[in-house]
Amino acid sequence: MANSHPEQRFLAQARDLIEQALEANLPGESDAGVLAPDLIAAMRYAVLGGGKRLRPQLVCATAASLDPDWQYSGALHRVIPAACALEFMHAYSLIHDDLPAMDNDDLRHGRPSCHKAYGEATAILAGDALQALAFEVLADAQALPPDMQLAMLRTLGRACGWRGMVGGQALDMAASGKVLTQAQLARLHAGKTGALLGAAVELGGLGVGVGADRMTSLTSLGAKLGMAFQIVDDLLDVTATTDKLGKTAGADAANGKNTYPALLGIDGTRARLQELQQNIREDLAQLALAESPLAALAAYIIERDY
Amino acid sequence: MANSHPEQRFLAQARDLIEQALEANLPGESDAGVLAPDLIAAMRYAVLGGGKRLRPQLVCATAASLDPDWQYSGALHRVIPAACALEFMHAYSLIHDDLPAMDNDDLRHGRPSCHKAYGEATAILAGDALQALAFEVLADAQALPPDMQLAMLRTLGRACGWRGMVGGQALDMAASGKVLTQAQLARLHAGKTGALLGAAVELGGLGVGVGADRMTSLTSLGAKLGMAFQIVDDLLDVTATTDKLGKTAGADAANGKNTYPALLGIDGTRARLQELQQNIREDLAQLALAESPLAALAAYIIERDY
Hints:
Two copies of one chain form a homodimer.
Chain A: H1 6-25, H2 37-48, H3 54-65, H4 75-98, E1 107-108, E2 111-112, H5 114-118, H6 120-139, H7 146-160, H8 165-175, H9 182-192, H10 194-207, H11 212-239, H12 242-245, H13 251-254, H14 260-286, H15 293-303
Antiparallel strand pairs in A: 1-2
Helix pairs in contact in A: 1-3, 1-4, 1-15, 2-6, 3-4, 3-10, 3-15, 4-6, 4-10, 7-10, 8-9, 10-11, 11-14, 11-15, 14-15
């Protein structure tokens, strides 16, 4: 992303803050209370080894965009704990998804996946500890009003549990090698990737205290962004190289995964994406956010090619 | 446990409430939002398939004991969400500990362990979802004052993460086949089992709003109870049968685990336990809890033989 526009400068600034906060909230190997240095190393490896920081940026972009003075907004600092929590949650889910018993993937962010680098037991535990850390960071964010903090914790809990991310991953495992309908595939992805991306938009809204009406619109926009993200991901798995992706290209087809290109063909998938992009633009316009960091990030999600 | 004494009647009543609350807070296969029925079945199997409910009983017994009118106390209902959260956390940790990449145990509570019954992928995910559910139940407990609820969430997060339970399990894996000193073994168990048992006592204290001084005494008592529990567990692994334990007897020695009997011998371990029991009695007396549900539960922890 070029940094010439204020929206893009904002996103770059948010990204720097996010990187600093992730580092600050991770344990270091010399921290008091460290029982097993390998566990800490594996947690740091999984979080600090790259990644687009899309979920935390989405939290920050949503919060700031809802503030009319977003270029000078203090909203960013208020949502950084929630942003970190989502990234820790995302990092844990990638560790567990890559395990031999799950997608069995050796490559992540262009490097050996966590269990290849640290062994399976340490990888399972690093994922477990990152999930706990996600909740802990948010519960520790004592600068927030307690009611806002609890609402954020509830959103996080719902998004990453049996109704959300973990439920979607379980459905994905169960459906491998079977052919799903488009509605079933949409439900799978609404859980597996949509829940955290939707939670990102909601957490951003909670951080600036939006009312129930706008929250409903935000939740709906978040769901569309989640689906658009997944469709692009599916397309890239077919069209991009392993080198560009930083993870194994073509892994979906090799694992018999249900994807949009497998269901709709590449052209049909691209048409679905264009339709979704149009809906997202309309939602943003209705929220009076057509020119905002959130709109810039939405455009990136849809137009990215890594 | 006989039910003739008021303390024991209280513990039996708490146990009933806990069972009801666990069932009420678990998803059912027909709940709205269920994506993968197998995931839900595995979560229910792991939680509802037995277990002593020691951690949630410890939360309830601590809270009630600190209330002079404990036989008619409302404190019990206030700490039930925290009690459930700890049991979900404990259940998830057992699922992950039993995995092939970890302790590789086929038996738990006298039945096939979760991955033997549901497969490895579903077991990993059921553990992940139970951890999320633990935080969610506590974040959803809206009858509590927000500050108390957040303090409980912080205690839970700290106890089950890299400093606590997961850190201890990682150290246990790393130390298998090596000989630890008694101090190292104490640190391992302070994390692996002590953190949740200690958190149980703290959560009970938080639920009745004890002051900082009493909380320090409670935390110290919780640590001793955790160590006593582990020493008894180690002794039972050597002296009891698989049938009695409901898990594989002798598994510690077979896995090259560091245990108190391996380090101190059986007689030395029993002597250490007696010393600890004396310390726990003194702590309880100083807290004016010598005759309380907490004292009854402490006695059970030390004298239990399943």
